Input
Amino acid sequence: MNVADSEVVGGILQREGYTFTKELGEADVILVNTCAIRDNAEVRIYGRLGLFGRYKKERPGVVVGLLGCMAERLRVQLVEEERVVDLVVGPDEYRKLPALIDQAYQGEKGIAVRLSRVENYEDIVPLRLEGVSAWLSVMRGCDKFCTFCVVPFTRGRERSRSLKSIIDEAHMLVDQGFKEVTLLGQNVNSYRDGDLDFAGLMRSVAGVDRNLRVRFTTSHPQDMSDRLIETVASTTNICKYVHLPVQSGSNRILELMNRSYTIEHYLALAEKIRKQMPGVGLSTDFISGFPTETPEDHGATLALARNVQFDGAYTFKYSARENTKAWQMTDDVSDEEKGRRVNEIATLQHEISLELNQKMVGATVRVLIDGESKKSAEEWSARTDANKVAVFPKSGEAVGDYVDVVITRANSATLFGSRVEAKAALEAAA
Ligand code: SAM
Ligand code: SF4
Output
């Protein structure tokens, strides 16, 4: 979501004649987009700001700005007290950036951190660097108020973009040569434009070009509708991949988290998805060490992971966030214990992913090539419909091509194989 937001910022500045550079030495304006979801994201930003602060001493004319979710919390400290940055701009005020940068050149510090009930930047064309896959934000904010989560406080109330603006952007992506788009929202199931819901939106975006792969994230388990499941299942260019964050395997913890579903509901939903979409990729998020989480609650999370057999999972140590309801609770699981629980879940998930991936050996899968393999210039890296990474030897293809690959081996993170035609030729030669 922050990548998508940075692209919106790029779009706003491009309209004013700015161009983008990745070279720090070339930049007249340096903007750092921040995330406040967990403490370690914040800690990293301090390191980065220290670096830019030193850089600013060498090139005093450079404007340094802090954007995003940390802006509201840190504006006093960073602008008024320590004067590390020239401007601080929250997620709903990016339109003010050009004026604030001009002001900074005059030596005036700028702060704009107000949240909006309507801003969705739908008229801004994001500045996307070349690639195969694009992010497309369809809504902003969140009204769910999970007790651990800072998003409703840093990004404000839920609001959707119009269908028309999203479809226009999808057409633009196809014209620019993108082959895949991921529709983004904190809870995409809340998307509305009049009577149109998220399932209707997905169907419309998929209709823009049948060669464009369409993905989405994130779906809240309480709100994922039958209509959405049917739409994903029945539309060929909507990828069969669902990221469905469960957070915990314990009903008691889920209730304390205000997640508003039970494990029984979650299991039934996962089963329904698997039944209607054979071969679907299913992934999740877990939080370890939420206040009062006992070894039994943690055991329930491990049992859930075993039961559902996720293809992948992101596991985070609980991080207390100011303003949230859980901030009032004692953060009573030690950091060491949180780490131990995270590792235990990760080890189990590693085994499950390995087993599921190895079951794919011998299968033929259609993949979209998204770049060179990180390990070898002789190989491509690609993604399956179910969002698994597949690596195979190059034989005249290009980035953005769809090819059929037969899987010959796998580890927990990657499938390895060769193109069906290449394998047939090798076998014939043998
Ligand atoms: N809106 C999405 C949802 O509800 O599924 C998730 C958005 S959040 C940016 C991504 C993940 O960060 C969450 O699913 C959760 O696992 C994790 N997360 C959020 N707040 C956290 C916190 N205070 N401590 C640890 N992990 C957190
Ligand atoms: Fe945060 Fe919950 Fe909203 Fe996700 S649904 S962004 S976890 S409040």
